[in-house]
Amino acid sequence: MDDVTAGERAVIAELDRLRGAEDLELARRFAAGQGGEGEESEEGWLRGSRGLSHLTKEQLDAFHDDYLKLLAKYRHTPEDAAPGARPVHLRWFGIPAD
């Protein structure tokens, strides 16, 4: 990112902040058992997982790459999605625990 201007860095930082706020709202809705739009229950649509592992930087990179491959495997547009498919938010991030 050495070729990014100060203005571009500010825009990137603001986009990251907005994405983070969206992720927090999604986590809040998940914890509350709501999918959105004021729904009280999503009748089996909510899924989540937490984990802790001891990884090297290279292993974390490999995990991330595998996650991206998994997303690509299941990525569908509205036009090629199966009947009954809904848009689903998917999030992954890895943060050192220490």
Keywords:
mainly alpha
* Element pattern in H and E: HH
The rounded Rg comes to: 17 Å
Q: How many β-strand runs?
A: 0
- Residue share in helix: 40-55%
Unreliable stretches covering 5 or more consecutive residues:
none
Shape descriptor: extended
Give the rounded overall mean pLDDT: 85
Measured by DSSP, the beta-strand proportion falls in: under 5%
Q: Helical region count?
A: 2
Task: Measure the end-to-end span.
Answer: 26 Å
Biggest sheet architecture? none
Instruction: Quickly give the structural class.
Output: mainly alpha
Provide a descriptive summary of the structure in words.
- The chain is mostly helical and 98 residues long.
- 45% of the residues lie in helices and 0% in strands.
- It contains two helices and no strands.
- The chain is extended.
- The mean pLDDT is 85.
Per-chain topology:
Blueprint: H1 6-31, H2 57-74
Structure in a nutshell:
This protein is mostly helical and 98 residues long. It has helices at 6-31, 57-74.
